[in-house]
Specification:
single chain; about 190 residues; Potassium Channel Kv1.1, Chain A; 2 domains; two-stranded antiparallel ribbon
Length: about 190
């Protein structure tokens, strides 16, 4: 398997690869061997997928993927999106369990991770999107002016997509009766 824009080679047994039919179906036969190229996948994250395919679990350390629970959450989120893309339901569930046991992230960190994760979320995603909406709702209750922050407005103006929709949904759901002050002209969907 050749993974990443500057390919890293992962030798994976065909029987192990067959655990993911979408991965196995992308293999090409070459001189009796099977080859798979995944240029758009982070090799370190794919290494965690390979670890899971062989052992039924994965460990972030000592792979050098960063330190601290923020980095740990980010890497679990990247595994989660990759598992969704290649129909690895058990791996996706494991990544969710690992994210759920981590210490709560501050909202700005979660939003930074979401900017990286959202473009790669499968269309049927529920967990990550719900997690962001819930956390954004809590953050807006703690900070009534959150919707006016430049880094929030940047999401609407420059990022757009489902991240902007989910963020808008969360900010609009505030349980207090004060109107949200989100300038709708910034929505880019």
């Amino acid at each position: 398997m050749h993974v990443g824009p500057r390919p890293v080679i992962y030798p994976v047994h065909r029987e192990v690869l067959n655990q993911s039919s979408p991965l196995a179906s992308r293999c090409d036969s070459f001189n009796g061997n099977f080859r798979l190229a995944l240029p758009d996948v982070d090799p370190k994250v794919f290494g965690l997928v390979v670890d899971f395919l062989y052992r039924g679990t994965y460990e972030l350390f000592p792979l050098g993927l960063g330190e601290g629970y923020e980095s740990e959450f980010r890497n679990h989120a990247l595994v989660y999106t990759l598992a969704g893309k290649y129909d690895l339901g058990r791996l996706r569930d494991l990544a969710v369990r690992k994210m759920e046991i981590l210490k709560k992230l501050d909202f700005t960190t979660l939003l930074t991770i979401a900017k990286e994760v959202y473009p790669n979320l499968p269309s049927d995603d529920v967990w990550f999107r719900n997690h962001l909406v819930i956390e954004a709702s809590w953050a807006s209750k703690e900070n009534k002016n959150l919707a006016q922050k430049a880094w929030i407005l940047d999401i609407f103006q420059n990022v757009g997509g489902m991240l902007a929709v989910d963020l808008f949904t969360a900010l609009a759901k505030r349980q207090d009766s004060s109107p949200s002050k989100i300038p709708l002209s910034f929505l880019k969907i």
